[in-house]
Design a protein that fits this description.
The protein is α/β, with parallel strands linked by helices. The protein has twelve helices and nine strands. α12 links the parallel β7 and β8.
């Protein structure tokens, strides 16, 4: 409970600071004649101490120290590494970086299994391709090994299984799924699996003038649904993910280059998968949608390696890439072998590893515990 109160206090402090910044910045604009508040002296770094902002982190954590030193350097107007606020862009993966990665699988994988095998309104109508994809996901739950091509096949199955849903209806479906209990944890629902230390990182960066983006391999609309109503302070327009086609209800197969949206049209999911946003596709999406090279990257797998390399290698601005290592098997569904591989990858590339076991005081907060193996609910 103390951690939750502290986070709330931090957000209140942040709101007050933003209000104060406006009071200072607006008069300066009129007095100086500048179109933007570009004077370094008018933009002091955040006065919120890292001890408060990052209270869920162990004080001696190397990753925490590296992040604080970096943020202080790039936000200090007197520093040679100073970066103007409009260039302070941080990109985060979702699953395994900000949010529980597997319980027993990714949120969007379990959502598809629920739709195809458990939803009484759809399970009898599911296609054979959707059923086969669900079976492969269930097999992955048991073996821990993903079948070849499952990433793309899953994207296609999600698109087809929710074809015809309006965007609002799809979001309502996701919100309902979020309320189901997390099978491997006591005291947590499926939509509540955010890592508290990483939520604090996002708040800390927001307080220091960064623009935070989520760049996920999960379907973009699903990510928006996960984030909606959550403590993650990222607006929907800064969410990038895998994509599926959207059409108008009156389109009836007509090409989008010919059809014009009409009064009374609703926007619905066409049922066609477009792209899986992993690896190099993440970099391409960043270039297309953000339009500026990020200076901070946070990920947890090889699916994020290209994003980390784009941020950390050859960047004209001072930059850092962090990778989470899933090494906690008591509080989280950890995988020590995978964590060790990630540490090796970090060492080879100059990225900074984050140990969930050693760096964090808590993962999900008070009142949440991992169930003993074999006690998971289905």
């Amino acid at each position: 409970m103390n951690r939750i109160l502290l986070s709330t206090d931090f957000r209140n402090i942040l709101a007050a600071m933003r209000a104060l910044a406006l009071l200072v910045a607006v008069p300066c604009l009129f007095l100086s004649g500048c179109a933007t508040p570009c004077d370094r002296t008018a933009m002091p770094p955040s006065a919120i101490p890292a001890e408060t902002a990052l209270s869920s982190w162990n004080e001696g954590a190397p990753a925490r120290a590296a992040l604080v030193a970096y943020v202080e350097a790039v936000t200090d107007p007197g520093s040679p590494d100073w970066i103007p606020p409009e260039k302070r862009i941080a990109v985060f993966d979702l699953d395994g970086t900000l949010f529980c990665e597997t319980d027993p699988n990714y949120f969007d994988y379990t959502l598809l299994v629920h739709r195809v095998t458990e939803d009484p309104d759809y399970r009898d109508r599911a296609s054979e391709a959707e059923r086969e994809t669900a079976r492969r996901i269930l097999a992955m739950n048991e073996t821990g090994v993903a079948a070849k091509g499952l990433e793309t096949d899953h994207g296609k199955a999600v698109a087809s299984a929710f074809a015809g849903f309006s965007l609002d209806a799809f979001d309502r479906y996701i919100q309902a799924f979020k309320k189901l209990p997390m099978p491997g944890y006591a005291g947590m629902k499926r939509g509540e699996g955010f890592y508290r230390p990483m939520l604090q990182v996002v708040d800390y960066l927001n307080a220091n003038g960064f623009k935070v983006w989520v760049v996920s391999g999960t379907d973009r609309f699903i990510v928006r649904g996960i984030v909606a109503g959550s403590p993650l302070a990222v607006p929907p327009e800064r969410i990038i993910g895998s994509d599926e086609a959207v059409i108008a209800t009156g389109q009836n197969g007509e090409d989008g280059l010919k059809y014009q949206l009409r009064e009374g049209d609703d926007l619905v999911l066409e049922g066609r998968f477009i792209v899986k946003n992993l690896k190099m596709n993440k970099v391409a999406a960043i270039v297309r949608e953000i339009g500026s090279r990020p200076i901070l990257s946070f990920g947890n797998s090889t699916g994020d390696s290209s994003m980390a390399a784009y941020v950390s290698k050859g960047n004209p601005a001072r930059s850092l890439a962090f990778m989470l290592c899933c090494d906690d098997t008591e509080r989280e569904n950890g995988n020590p072998a995978k964590a060790e591989k990630m540490r090796t990858l970090c060492q080879e590339n100059g990225w900074i590893p984050i140990s969930m076991k050693d760096d964090w005081k808590t993962i999900y907060g008070d009142g949440v515990s991992r169930k003993p193996k074999g006690a998971e609910t289905r």
